[in-house]
Amino acid sequence: MMKWFTNLFKKNKKEVAVSEPLGPQITSDMHAHFLPNIDDGAQSLEESIDIIKGLVEMGYKNLVATPHVMSDFYKNTPEIILEKLALVQAEVEKQNIDVHLTAAAEYYLDEGFLKKLKSNEPLLTFGDNYILLETSFINSCFFIDEVIFLCISKGYKPVIAHPERYTYVYGNYNEIKRWKNLGALLQVNALSLAGYYSSKAKEIAQNLINDQLVDFIGSDCHKAKHLDWLKKVRTLSYYNKALGLPLQNNLIIKVPQK
């Protein structure tokens, strides 16, 4: 694994940024899984704090927890999520960590979410009513157009999480552009730029940056081990190039949880 990791960055020497950042560093992370024992992210309060400390050391000042919400697997509710947030917040204050925490969710586009949306159930958002959405990694969502339309009509700002990781768009890059044209915002995972998920995800992420389609860069940090990768990403030329886009990360408004 370490040999592969080393070779990855040897191969990508031409991508290492040697100049000053093209734009301001990202200080707000709107996609992370640091709430403990709630999804496939942090599995203990200790790991939650390790992740938070690591992100703070990298310069993040605002962190949004976005645990998965899936009807058949992660049956998280606003109450469950906010209870976990309070637990983590108490420990952060106890350890005097200088960071602002809020919680939203990463909603999986299934029939359960569509029902919630149509029935006006309370949904967790971040900043100025942004709502984070994800689809299957393999199969397209046949009602994604309806979701984008309903979200916008109800005052939400839909953000499609990590479109570069959806294998069903690998032969149809224009599908991502179509979501953008419908009014959705796009969030790329920082780790995609290092090839962490796959070479194809990296390629799509780079294309999205080249085409100036990226609205957010998220850590999507699930484990403390992701922190070393995130540090490496911040040296890459494509990350530097992304900083030159009108990213909305640092426009996230500090709003109290309802």
From TrEMBL:
Species in which this protein is naturally found: Flammeovirga pectinis
InterPro entries, per the entry: Caps_polysacc_synth_CpsB/CapC (IPR016667), Pol/histidinol_Pase-like (IPR016195)
Molecular function as annotated in GO: manganese ion binding; protein tyrosine phosphatase activity
Enzyme Commission numbers on file: 3.1.3.48
Catalytic reaction list: O-phospho-L-tyrosyl-[protein] + H2O = L-tyrosyl-[protein] + phosphate
Signal peptide positions (record): none
Gene3D superfamilies (UniProt xref): Metal-dependent hydrolases (3.20.20.140)
Keywords assigned: Hydrolase
Protein name per UniProt: protein-tyrosine-phosphatase
Family: Belongs to the metallo-dependent hydrolases superfamily. CpsB/CapC family.
